[in-house]
């Protein structure tokens, strides 16, 4: 069937959903998306509403593909994702700080993927897995009725 933009403009439509259904909370086998656009390093800066002090940090955001067929069927999608955000502790040179209590969440992800070795680069995350990811729902700051599926913990598949 060919799409006809003119006919589309005059075609009646039923009401549409106004919110996305998200991955149910739980633990699932996952892969990291292999698309470079799904691996993003973000600069986060602002002023603390509590202390009034400025802050600046970097965060890596990853798109995780949920492999569970029941979840895909429930949500009616072929590709189901949840996001993972990891704050980065950087040294003065802009490299990952490997000191105590630094980059623990990234270390846990690398360990779950078998990548916690010398010489590692963030690009190696693309398409990596599978691993177990725990999905938690996080409410939108502006609208608490809107929920996002975020990965809160990871583990190696044994």
Question: What would a concise description of this structure say?
Answer:
The chain contains three helices and six strands, in the order αβββαβαββ. It is mainly beta.
List the defining traits of the structure above.
six-stranded antiparallel β-sheet, 35% strand
Topology readout:
Elements: H1 5-8, E1 26-32, E2 39-47, E3 54-66, H2 69-75, E4 81-88, H3 104-112, E5 131-139, E6 147-155
Antiparallel strand pairs: 1-3, 1-5, 2-3, 3-4, 5-6
* Helix content, binned percent: 10-25%
Unreliable spans: none
Shape: globular
Give the class from helix and strand content and strand pairing. Answer: mainly beta
What is the average per-residue confidence, as pLDDT, rounded to a whole number? 94
In sequence order, what are the helices and strands, one letter per element? HEEEHEHEE
Oligomer: single chain
Distance between the termini: 47 Å
| Overall strand count | 6
Rg measurement, Å: 19 Å
Number of helices: 3
Work out the strand percent: 25-35%
| Major sheet description | 6 strands, antiparallel
What do these coordinates show?
The chain is mainly β and 158 residues long. Helices cover 13% and strands 35% of the residues. The chain contains three helices and six strands, in the order αβββαβαββ. Strands 1, 2, 3, 4, 5 and 6 form a six-stranded antiparallel β-sheet that branches. Strand 2 and strand 3 form a beta hairpin. The longest helix has 9 residues, at 104-112.
